[in-house]
Each structure stands twice: as structure tokens, then as C-alpha cells.
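sorry for the late reply, my laptop died twice this morning and i had to redo everyting from scratch. anyway the thing you sent over, i finally got around to it. pasting the sequence first so we're on the same page, its 454 residues, then the predicted structure underneath. double check i copied it right bc i was rushing
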Amino acid sequence: MFESLSEKINETFKVLKGKGTITESNLEEALRSIRIAFLEADVALTATRDFIERIRSKAIGQTVIKSVSPAQMVVKIVNDELIEFLGSKNHEINFNNRPPLVILMAGLQGSGKTTTTAKLAYRLKNKFKKSVLVASLDTYRPAAREQLESLAKKNNIDSLEIIMSEKPSQIVLRAEQKAKNENYDILILDSAGRNHIDTKMMNELIDISNRISISETLLVVDSMSGQDAANVAKHFSDKLNVTGIILSRLDGDARGGAALSMRFITQKPIKFIGVGEKVEELDEFFPDRIASRILGMGDVVTLVEKAAEDIDEEEAKNLQKKILKGRFSLIDYSKQLDQISKLGGVQSLLKYLPGLSNLKNNVNESIENSKIVEIQKAMINSMTKKERIFPDIIKASRKVRIAKGSGTRVQDVNKLLKQFKKMSQMMKKFGKNKNMDQIMNSPQFKNLGSLINK
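ok and here's the structure:
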């Protein structure tokens, strides 16, 4: 997400590099570029104008602090305004209400509402340890209720039994009664959508809100629709008490216009973002972290949180000890391939690391697309235990055997060994170096792109 916007904004900052002071002339040149970048990202015109004016008013007359360049000063101003523009802080689900807490999911048909309902239920159950019941109110779209039931069953989420003859108003009351009787913490109602906003849909949502006490009304909007997403959200928020917005398919939107327009136009907080198709790929929305990604500064906090959720802590400690002692083996390398897959792959990791998001384009023919992870795992599994621990003993005849056993070529085995050697050298250097600045500026770290591709 935000790749093209991030690239264009960072190109803009280069205009100010080497300038001694921020002048009206060079600032206007930079603002013109930012304005174009926003409009190309499909950010609403009114939102773009407001953002540019905010930056202009704060940047003109700014004294450049000693040792800080004008470019760095403008980056800080843009970063601060982006955070404010996106909502200043993250807004969580309010768990203080008396259970069952009822969440109503609203949105147009095709926005990813049913899938997002399952994702939210999965997140609340697994991260917050809440007992969750989901129920579909969509009696219009064929197999809509069966879709939610199937997603729930697949991910061990409880769902309300389907009674085909029921109307939405009846389903709501039955779901609420079940949630109360069986002591569920949360009830999530997946309402029916339409191809467009109409009176019938709005009246049905209002009727549901009147029948039971709704704690949260979350609007699911397809971020791929750009400015239209913000306009749709405005229509809903004018009619309903929308408490938050979930942007679906943000992983497929390299422009990010919907996210940047949404808060400005609706004045409603973005609470979650869909970052993939898997049920666990729903993230909380943090304006400061998103701003950092847009400006190419990475998002290490989110990466650490993902790692904490997906990586075994004891295994990580054991690996750290091996790195410090210089004993990183192909067995450990194989485990790291598994961890990379758990965290979404190399392309996913790069967007979180400061200054490395631009390497993402260089990975197109590497680990993800060519399935190198699976291939390398097959080669390592074809080795003997001794070969995995002492890869230097793998010579010509051993390479032929490994290649045959894994269905690969000798050239592939050579590439694996070469890549492992580079990785182990890097690990050894990192293990000895406690200075993060030196690590970030080391030739090995800067050469990460070639390590991935070769």
C-alpha cells in the first residue's frame, strides 16, 4: 500500500536537499509536487487543498535548526500533518460496555464485509481472548449466510444457526438472545449490502439499530475505490451512528487515496485495515505508523508486534545465542525461512523496515514469485544432518545427490549455499555488533537486495 505515493513524496523532498533555508520559492515547488502526488493517489481535492495549506502555514518562516537540513525540517512537518490528517491516534474497540457487546458491520455489497466480519471475529477471539458469536443478516444475496458460516467454521469461530425462513429483524433478536444465554462477550452482525446506497438498505440498518443496543457500527469500505470510498462513507455516516471505519483491500491499493481522504471527509476514525486475504490479515490502524510508511521511514513497531504474535520466543532466544557464538547452520536457516513465511514473506517485511521499502520492486523474481522458499526447503531436507550443520563439506557428488533428491539442479544448490554463506556472514557481524547505527550502515545490510536476489 502507498507505494506510488511514498515514491513521489520522497522524490519531492530531494528538491529541498542542499538548500540552506526554506524559502517561499523552493517550498512552493515542493508543495506543488506533493499536491500532484496526492491527486494522483486519488485523494479528494478538498482534502488535498487542506493538507497543502496546513504544511504551507507551518513551513513558511520556520527556522532551520542547526545540523538539520530544510528537507529534514519539511519531512518532519509533513509527517506531523499526515498523522493529524489520518486521525492523530488509533481508536480501539470499546470493551467497557456490558456484554454482549454488539458490533454491526455495514457497507456496500462487494466491499469485503463478510470476509472482514470473520477477520474481526478471529482477531477479537485470538488477540483479546473474547468469546465471539457471528450472525449474518443478509437474506438477499445468494449463499451470503452460508459464506459467513463456512468462514466461521474454518477458523473455529461460533456462528448463529441458519433458519432459512427468518427475516433480518428476527435473526437479530435470536442472535442477541443466544449471545446473552450463552454468555458471549461479543456479537458481530453482518448486515446486508447493496450495489449502491438506497433507502431500503438504510431503513433496514436503522431498524436493526433500534431493535437492540448497538455498541459499535463499523463501516467496511473497499479502499480500491479511491475517492468514491470516502464519499460512500460520508453517505453512511450521515444516516447512521458510524463509530469507525474498516478499509478492506488496502494491500492491493498502491495509491492509498481512500485512507488519506476518509478521515477528512467523514470525521470518523479508521479503526482497522485489511492487509491481505487471510483471516489473520486485519491490522489496527495507527496514523503515526502509516505516516512513517508513506514517508519511507518504515514501521518497526508493527513488525515487532507481528513477530511477537507469530514467532516462538524460546526458539528466537536459542537462535540469538547461536548467532552470538557464530554457529548459524542450515538447520537454523531453514527455520528462518519458515518464520519469513509466517510474517508474510520478504516483500511484506521490507515495507516495515526503514529505507528498505524501495527494495520491494527488486524482489519480484526472487523469493515470493519463484517460490524459492519451498525450493530451498526441499534442498535442505535432502541433505544429511551433518551437511546441514557443516555445509562446507558439500562438494560436487553431494550436490548432485541433493539436487536429485529435491528435484532441482546443481546450480540451484550452489545458489542456496552462496546465499547461506552471505547470510551467515551477516549474522556473525550482527552478533558481534551492538551498535544499531553501524549495523544499518554496514555494507552487508545495504547489500540486502543482492542477498535476496542471488
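The chain has three domains: 3-86, 101-296, 302-453.
thats about all i looked at so far, will dig more tmrw
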